[in-house]
Specification:
single chain, Transcription Regulator spoIIAA, four-stranded mixed sheet, two-stranded antiparallel ribbon, 21 helices, elongated
C-alpha cells in the first residue's frame, strides 16, 4: 500500500469486523423489539421528567431524539438512548440553581458540544477499562433495582416516579420501605392485571408458543390489559384501575399545543459560569454512564459485536445538543431500555430508531389511547426484563471463578442497590482494582533461569511497572553475601522509575553486601535518565 493510501484523517474508531444482519433479515425482529422498547420507554420518559422538575413533555422529546437521531448517528447495534434516571438529581438541582428550565437548556446544549469534543479526542477508550465483574455486577444490580422498584407499581402503589433507580426516593422512602408501604396500599385490579401480563410474558417464551412469537407478548399484554381494564371501568367494578395508576401522556391536539409544549434555551446563559459548570458536569456524567451502558449492552449482544465508543460520544453529543435546542432533558445510553431491546430479540439499531418514531407518532396521534394503559402492566414488562438481567446463573458463574471475581461482582450489586448506578459502579471498581493490584503483586517480576553454586541468573520481565517494585525488592534482598548475581534485561521494553531506582540502589549496596552483580541489557535504564526504549 502506498503512503498516499494511508494518509488523511483517521476514523474515530476502527471499523467492526463483525457480521451485521441485513434489514431484510432482521426487520420483523427489530419491529417487535421496538414495540417492547416503546412500551418500556413511555412511562420512563414521563417519570424521569417528573422527578427532574422539568415539563413532562421534555422527557418525551429526549426519548424521540434518543431513538431517531442518536439511533441513526450511533455505531451501537442494540443500545437505546433516552432520559436517564441517574441524572435526575443533577437536573433538579441545576434547574433550581439556574432559576429556569430555559437557562438549563443552554447548559444541555453546551454539554452536547462538549461530548462531541470528547468523542473527537477519542476519550471513549475509557469504556474499555471497566472489569467484567463490575459490568456484570452493574447489569445484575440494575435488574434487581428494576424488580424492587416496579413491584410497588405492579400492586398499584405509585407513590414513586417511574424509572427511579436511587435507593433514597424523593418521597422520603427508600427501596425497601416502599415495598412495606405498598403492602398496605395495594389495588386488587392492578395486581390482577400485572399477574396476567407477567403470565403471558412467561408463557410466550415456552417452546410450544414458537408459532405465535411474531407478535410481541408485551404488546398483547398491554392490549389485553387495556381491554380488560376498560371492561372493569365500564361495569363500575372496584377492580378498575384509574387516575394516577394510568399512563399520563400530555395531550397534543394541535400545532399550537406542540409549540407551547416545546421549550427553548435562554442564550443569556452563555455568559454565566454556573451554566458552563453544569454543562461540564452533565457532559462528564452522561458520557461515563453512556460508556458503561454501551459496554454492558455489548456484553448482552448475542452476536458479540463491539460498538465504537468514540462515535457513540459524538452521537450522544449530537443528541444532547438537539435536546437543548428544543426543550429535552439530557440523555445517556440507558441500560433498562437497552436490555429490554436485547431480550425482545432486536438484531440491529433499526429497533432503537423505530422506537423513536413510535414515540413521535404516539404523542401526536394517540395520546388519549395510551393514557388508558395501566402502569401495573408496564411494571410487569419491566419486572420480566429485570429477572433476565439478575438471573441467578450470573452469581453461579462468578462463584465458579474465584473470590477475586465474585467479591467485586457482589459488592457492585450491593453498592448499586444501596446508592445509585454511578456510586455503585465506583465502589465496585475500587474493590476490583484492589484485587487487580493484589494479583499483580503476586506476579513474579523476574524468574530464575539458572543456578550454579552461589551464582544465580535472573531474567526480568518485558514490562516492569511500579507494581513489580515489592516483588523485585524482596527477590534482590534475599541474596546472601558472596553471591554472584547476573540480571538479564535484554528483553525488557519498559521500566518504571520506581523499579529503576530499586536496581540502582541494589547496585550501589552490592559492594557492602559482598555481592558480585552483573547486568545485561540494563545499562540504559539504571545508569541513564531514559526509562523506556
Amino acid at each position: 500500500m502506498s503512503p498516499a493510501a494511508t494518509s488523511g484523517p483517521k476514523p474515530l474508531d476502527p471499523p467492526s469486523a463483525h457480521w451485521e444482519p441485513s434489514f431484510r433479515e432482521s426487520w420483523r425482529a427489530d419491529l417487535g423489539a421496538s414495540i417492547v422498547v416503546f412500551l418500556v420507554a413511555l412511562p420512563l420518559c414521563l417519570g424521569v421528567a417528573l422527578a427532574s422538575g422539568a415539563p413532562l413533555f421534555s422527557g418525551i422529546v429526549t426519548g424521540i431524539i434518543g431513538g431517531i437521531v442518536v439511533g441513526m448517528a450511533s455505531g451501537s447495534h442494540l443500545m437505546v438512548s433516552g432520559p436517564a434516571a441517574g441524572l435526575t438529581a443533577i437536573v433538579l438541582s441545576a434547574i433550581t440553581s439556574l432559576g429556569s428550565f430555559s437557562a438549563f437548556l443552554t447548559a444541555v446544549f453546551l454539554s452536547g458540544l462538549m461530548q462531541i469534543g470528547l468523542g473527537l479526542m477519542r476519550a471513549g477508550v475509557i469504556g474499555y477499562y471497566f472489569p467484567n465483574a463490575v459490568i456484570r455486577g452493574m447489569l445484575a444490580g440494575i435488574g434487581l433495582i428494576i424488580i424492587l422498584k416496579q413491584l410497588p407499581h405492579a400492586v398499584g402503589y405509585d407513590a414513586d416516579f417511574e424509572g427511579d433507580e436511587s435507593f433514597l426516593q424523593p418521597n422520603s422512602e427508600n427501596t425497601f420501605t416502599a415495598l412495606l408501604s405498598a403492602l398496605g396500599d395495594m389495588h386488587t385490579g392492578a395486581i390482577l392485571l400485572s399477574l396476567l401480563a407477567l403470565g403471558m410474558l412467561v408463557l410466550w417464551e415456552q417452546p410450544f408458543m414458537k408459532r405465535f412469537k411474531l407478535i410481541p407478548a408485551a404488546l398483547l399484554a398491554v392490549v389485553g390489559g387495556v381491554v380488560l381494564n376498560g371492561i372493569f371501568t365500564a361495569s363500575g367494578s372496584p377492580l378498575a384501575v384509574t387516575g394516577d395508576h394510568l399512563v399520563n401522556l400530555p395531550i397534543i391536539a394541535s400545532m399550537a399545543d406542540l409549540r407551547s409544549a416545546l421549550s427553548f434555551p435562554d442564550w443569556r446563559g452563555l455568559t454565566s459560569s454556573g451554566v458552563w459548570g453544569i454543562a461540564l458536569t452533565l457532559a462528564l456524567v452522561a458520557s461515563l454512564e453512556t460508556l458503561l451502558s454501551l459496554e454492558a449492552t455489548d456484553r448482552m449482544d448475542p452476536l458479540k459485536r463491539e460498538a465504537p465508543t468514540n462515535r457513540e460520544l459524538v452521537a450522544q453529543g449530537l443528541g444532547n445538543s438537539l435536546c437543548g435546542l428544543v426543550g429535552g432533558l439530557p440523555m445517556t445510553g440507558v441500560i433498562v431500555r437497552s436490555s429490554a431491546n436485547v431480550f425482545a430479540g432486536a438484531r440491529t439499531k433499526a429497533s432503537a430508531i423505530m422506537h423513536g418514531f413510535l414515540l413521535l407518532i404516539a404523542v401526536l396521534a394517540i395520546p388519549a389511547l395510551l393514557n388508558r394503559i395501566p402502569l401495573a402492566i408496564l411494571a410487569a414488562i419491566l419486572i420480566h426484563t429485570g429477572w433476565k438481567l439478575a438471573h441467578p446463573r450470573q452469581l453461579k458463574y462468578f462463584l465458579s471463578k474465584g473470590y477475586h471475581q465474585w467479591v467485586p461482582f457482589i459488592v457492585t450489586i450491593a453498592a448499586i442497590l444501596l446508592s445509585d448506578l454511578l456510586k455503585g459502579i465506583a465502589v465496585g471498581l475500587a474493590i476490583s482494582m484492589v484485587f487487580i493490584l493484589l494479583e499483580h503483586l503476586r506476579v513474579e517480576s523476574c524468574k530464575v533461569i539458572e543456578v550454579d553454586g552461589n551464582r544465580t541468573r535472573l531474567q526480568l520481565n518485558e514490562h516492569l511497572t511500579f507494581l513489580a517494585k515489592a516483588n523485585l525488592t524482596a527477590r534482590l534482598q534475599a541474596f546472601p553475601a558472596g553471591s554472584i548475581v547476573e540480571i538479564d534485561g535484554s528483553t525488557v521494553q519498559r521500566i518504571d522509575h520506581d523499579v529503576a531506582e530499586v536496581l540502582r540502589e541494589f547496585l550501589q549496596s552490592a559492594p557492602e553486601r559482598h555481592l558480585d552483580v552483573r547486568l545485561t541489557g540494563l545499562e540504559k535504564f539504571v545508569n541513564g535518565s531514559s526509562l523506556a526504549h
